[in-house]
């Protein structure tokens, strides 16, 4: 008898507790649903203020020392030419010399590749410039044929463009995206007859830097275009507000 009474009492207590837990769950669920999430966009256009450019030149000779000497002559011609164009000596950087052995190669009667006898050395060196005089280096990269006309085997790369005040741009975009998101949330709350409560959560996306009016794809880790002098940066901010 006592066992039955205890069992009934335990069951009743469990039922009451279950109702309490269920009530809290419903209350918390309704509370969690009483929020609004919006995404704001911050955009900024700017012009690069730093440029990098590089080119490479090479010499071939069966004698290694002779190849070095010939490369040194070309290096001086290139250096003097750059300085004559107004490039500061401290901005001109020559890399170490890359040495490659060359061999005469051919395919045998069965079509197999055969590496033949040693034919000489190929020495290559790279020159690079980093400068804030963007227009000057742009013009230099376009007129580099002047070096080639001096009998130097020279290959020029396309310039790369950067912006040194990107941290400031990012702060401005974050502020703009946050303002945009809040205005969207206020409008949605107003249209639904509610008012905006406290900010519960803020999530920032990655910065995407592309060429303006281009079809460049955004990437998960962020895009950073270096081929265009003019740039467009975008960033998103997701805000979650309590709605009253």
From TrEMBL:
Pfam families in UniProt: SIMPL
InterPro entries: 26kDa_periplasmic_antigen, SIMPL/DUF541, UCP029033
Highest taxon, organism lineage: Bacteria
Coiled-coil portions: none
Signal peptide boundaries: none
Protein name per the record: SIMPL domain-containing protein
Organism: Chryseobacterium herbae
């Amino acid at each position: 008898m006592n066992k039955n009474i205890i069992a009934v009492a335990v069951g009743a207590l469990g039922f009451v507790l279950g109702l309490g837990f269920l009530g809290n769950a419903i209350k918390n669920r309704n509370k969690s649903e009483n929020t609004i999430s919006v995404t704001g966009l911050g955009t900024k256009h700017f012009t690069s203020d730093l440029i990098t450019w590089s080119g490479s030149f090479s010499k071939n000779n069966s004698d290694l020392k002779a190849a070095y000497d010939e490369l040194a002559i070309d290096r001086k011609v290139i250096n003097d030419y750059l300085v004559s164009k107004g490039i500061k000596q401290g901005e001109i950087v020559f890399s170490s010399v890359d040495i490659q052995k060359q061999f005469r190669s051919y395919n045998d009667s069965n079509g197999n590749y055969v590496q033949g006898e040693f034919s000489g050395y190929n020495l290559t060196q790279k020159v690079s410039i980093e400068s804030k005089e963007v227009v000057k280096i742009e013009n230099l990269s376009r007129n580099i044929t002047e070096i080639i006309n001096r009998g130097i085997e020279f290959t020029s790369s396309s310039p790369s463009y950067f912006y040194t005040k990107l941290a400031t741009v990012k702060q401005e975009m974050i502020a703009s995206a946050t303002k945009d998101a809040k205005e969207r949330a206020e409008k949605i709350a107003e249209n639904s007859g509610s008012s905006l409560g406290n900010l519960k959560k803020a999530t920032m996306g990655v910065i995407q830097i592309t060429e303006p009016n281009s079809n460049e794809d955004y990437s998960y880790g962020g895009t950073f275009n270096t081929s265009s002098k003019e740039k467009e940066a975008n960033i998103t901010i997701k805000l979650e507000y309590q709605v009253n």
